[in-house]
Each structure stands twice: as C-alpha cells, then as structure tokens.
AAA+ ATPase domain-containing protein (Setaria digitata), 417 residues
Amino acid sequence: MNCKVNRVDDIQMLRFCQRCQCGNEEEGSMNKISPTLFTSSLYLTSLYPFLRDEREECLKKFCNQKIEICGLQSAVETTGKCTISDLKRLAKRIVLESKVNGHEKIMWDDVQQALSGFRPNAMPIEHQKSVEMIKLQWEDVGGLKNVKQILTEVFIWPTKYPLLYRNSSIRLGRGVLLYGPSGCGKTLICKTLASQWHFNVISVKGPELLSKFIGESEENVRKIFGCARATSPCLIFFDEFDSLGPKRGEGDTGVSDRVVNQLLTELDGVEGLDDVYVIATTNRVDLIDGALLRPGRFDYIVKCELPRKEDRKSILEILCRGVNSENVDFELIAEATDGWTGADLKGLVTNAQLIAHKRISGALRAKDVSLNGHAKYTLCHQDLLLAIKDSQPNKKRSCSTLNRKSCIPAGVLTTLA
C-alpha cells in the first residue's frame, strides 16, 4: 500500500498538466483510478470513437487504397465503435483474405469473410460467446415464416440499409421477445439470425447473470449492456429470459426485483440503445414482469406456434438432407405427426436412423458380410413409421407424468379453472 502511495506522489511531483483517459467509462474504469491523482493541475480528456468518415479513411490507408467501394462501405458500417488497433487488425484480415482468394483488388466477399468471427478489443473474452459458430441460413429452419419476416425487418434491414432508416422519422423497434412451446425452434431461429448478422453478438443464458452476492447480478446486467454499447452495432441474445425478468414482488430475497429494475433502466433508460438490438426467448411469457413487455423495451412480442402440416413436412425434409431417403413420403409422415414440435421431429428422425441401422446391419450379419464396405444406408418410409410408434411427443410425455390440472402447455396463457 505504501508503495502505491509513493508512486502517486511521484506522479504528482512530475506536474503532469494533462491526462488522456481512453476506455469505456460505462464499465467503471474511472472509479479504479486513485482519487489522489485528480487534482486541480490535472485535466481529463476522453477519446471518443471514430466518426464514419474517419473509419473510412483509416481502412483505406491500412488496405493501401485497394478496396472496392461496396466492401469498404460494409466494413465502415460494421466497425461502429472500433479503435485504431481494431481497424488495423481488421485491415490485416481483409488483405489476407484477398490474397488467399487470389484477388488483386479487395472485393466485397473478402471483407465479409474477414468480418466473420472478428471481435473488437472492447468486448471481453467472457462475452465473446459465439452463438454456435455454424453458418446457418434461413432455409435451414423449417416453418416459422412469419417470425423470419419480422426478424428480417427489425434486425437485418436497418443494418443493411442504414441511410434509408437513418433518414426516417419513425422510431424503429429494437427489441423482440419470442415465446412459445418448448422445442418449437425459438433458440434455433435466434442462432440463425446471429449467423446472418455480420456484427457483434453477445449470447447470454438468463441464469448466468444471477449471483448470490448483493449487487453483483445488477452489475452483470450493466456490464452486458455496457459492452454492447462499446462494440455497437451489437445484438444481445437472452435465452431463458423468464429466469432473468420474473414478476416483481414474488421473490423472497428481492434479488430478482433489482435485476428487473436494472433491465428496465438499460432497455429504455436515459442513455438509450443506439445500434444495440435485443432478442429474447422464453417458454413462459406469463412469468415475465409486465413492465418489460411494453413498447419501447420489447416492441415485438412474437409467438412461435406449433408447426403446421406443411411446416412439419419442411422440417422433416431439412432433417433428412444428408440421408438417402428417396422412398420416404414426407407428406404422410407430416400428417401422422400432428402436434409434434421441431425437437420432437428431430428425435423422430434420429430414432428412425437407428432403426434403419439395426435393419441393415442385421441383414448383413445374416449373410455374414462385413459392415466396413456398407457404411452408407438408406432410410425408408417404414423406418419412420416404426419410429412414430416408438416415440412420444413432449406434450404426451408431460401429460402422462404430471397432474392434469398442472399440465399447462409452455408459453400458452391459460388458467387452471
């Protein structure tokens, strides 16, 4: 302790007339500096993020002016709060991708490949949780056409056409809450959105932010939103949101009440959420505090319905893409699985593949043929029919184990009467 005090005295004796503080003030970095340094002879200067034109000039210089205008505009829009070191790292990635692809001039594809997986230094490692770094397309999600359209309009279009939306006088919604039965594809469609989103993504499981220490849960919420502002444009993805924002007044310790109050402040507070978007998923929207559901916080509350017949057919076709299933009538299978969720259908296909494996391996063993040369197998219609008899959808399983009055489908607003 004495050593630290002596160092502070030495700094004061040097008579610095200016100190430049560069960092994210929202994370409380100023509070970590010894107050004895803040004397009348010291002046504080904050370095603000680069403007759009400044980022464009830096990227041009770092890329040696060999960048196509479309790729440059895409990189400039993506690097909203990047520092000079971030821009240098990004430029090196862009140049490297261009050389790997054999382009003399940096093209739009080179920029997109360089942006994939790029994270600014301001985003801590613990928040760089990728939402499964798998390249997913909207075609990989069966059904949910209405949900896909809403997510595209709210998240993709404003970032794809920023000038058009910037000149609009209409306040654009930035929060979407997806709710519905368990297994209907809420998390999958959010992962697909994160894959389509070429900016920063922060993935948060609701219970991860809760702590037994007083004040730490609220601090975790502030850090998440502070990190999102520092690395904007950014998307925050909350999974199992009902565990983070339950109704106030129902808890014993009051921790959940303070967390909800902090969420209310961050989602629609004084500071605002410029270029920060929020998407959350839950099975029980009836458990979430009503103040979180009002417009201005979550502007769009979208229900993910159980898949209809044509949706189930689409899901089955997607699940059987990598399997030889030419003789399967997906129309009949979809008709026989009324009330099944997407997760139930995935389990059905898995069970059908196991049945096909047993059928083929048994036939080969009967002929005393080695299995090494017969790794590929065909999934037939009968395998899926047998799997339907052996499988049970989640709704039937819960009804058989729970009392009838307590068996409420997740996400459905109903009463016990």
Observations:
- The chain has a mean pLDDT of 74.
- The beta strands are 19-21, 44-46, 175-179, 200-205, 234-239, 276-282, 300-303.
